[in-house]
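Lab notes, practical 5.
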Amino acid sequence: MDGLSPTTDIMQLNETIQRESAFVDVLKTEIRKAIIGQEYMVERLLLALLADGHILLEGVPGLAKTLAINSLSKAISADFSRVQFTPDLLPADVIGTMIYNQKENAFTVKKGPIFANFVLADEINRAPAKVQSALLEAMQERQITLGETTFKLDEPFLVLATQNPLEQEGTYPLPEAQLDRFLIKAVISYPKKEDEILIMRNSVNKTFGTVNPVIEPSTILNARKVVREVYMDEKIERYITDIVFASRYPDDYGLSNLKNMISYGGSPRASISLAVIAKSYAFLKRRGYVIPEDVRAMCNDVLRHRIGITYEAEAENITAENIISEILNKVEVP
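Output from the prediction step:
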């Protein structure tokens, strides 16, 4: 769709998106049978799914993170698996292993829980780096190698990892290289008081609805193709790269005060992720083109885990979100 200019093309694309995005409301309605409130989390799950990326959720226990992805997989008629990350977990517990069969005098493959459409890596920072890295090939290459055989993972494939705040004991911080492979990092907060009353009432009375399959996985795969066709003007592309470059070279953007606050900025993957997720956001808003507000809406989710802050910043209680806000306020909006 590069070089798209005639208004008729945009109108046709808008019509296509109106038609292809109709399933979103159906999906949200079905998920709401089990999930009350938490609109932000549900929307981020859908955005990651449409953008074909993985999502890292950070929040305290009990915020329905497991229930949300389980409900999503049921509504899409997809396979779901959950891996509870613990300090004694082994890579084979995640990806599978080769088992020797004495009767046949040969090794057979025993596939691990990673072989599913939706994989919940619960409390990923509870396991050491060796186990965390077992996810990398699956997340990046969408394949698993066991012995001499490589298995392609079924589409759609979404890893949703959860982690507790890093100041808790017994955790292993995720390496920057692995964090960078998550499309977005969403920070989940407590539900509103009215929502919590409903959650409490439904839990006590066991009146939560049952989530049923309402769409097929093929619907998601078709929607992804349309998402990639969403028009992004060259000015928006430059806006995205300016934001990411400002996190690397703050001096060049009149942000000298941030120079000692940032240890490293966003990688090229940050630019790619911001572009793709902005297109997904436009798709959810039933639009065939990306506007600056789409980019700004997704900046925190895309960049908060890709900007390293220095000890000096920590001492002054400056967070990655504070830095992102300053960048957005300074970089010129097209």
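Observations recorded by the TA: The chain has two domains: 24-219, 231-330. Residues 1-6 have pLDDT under 50 and may be disordered.
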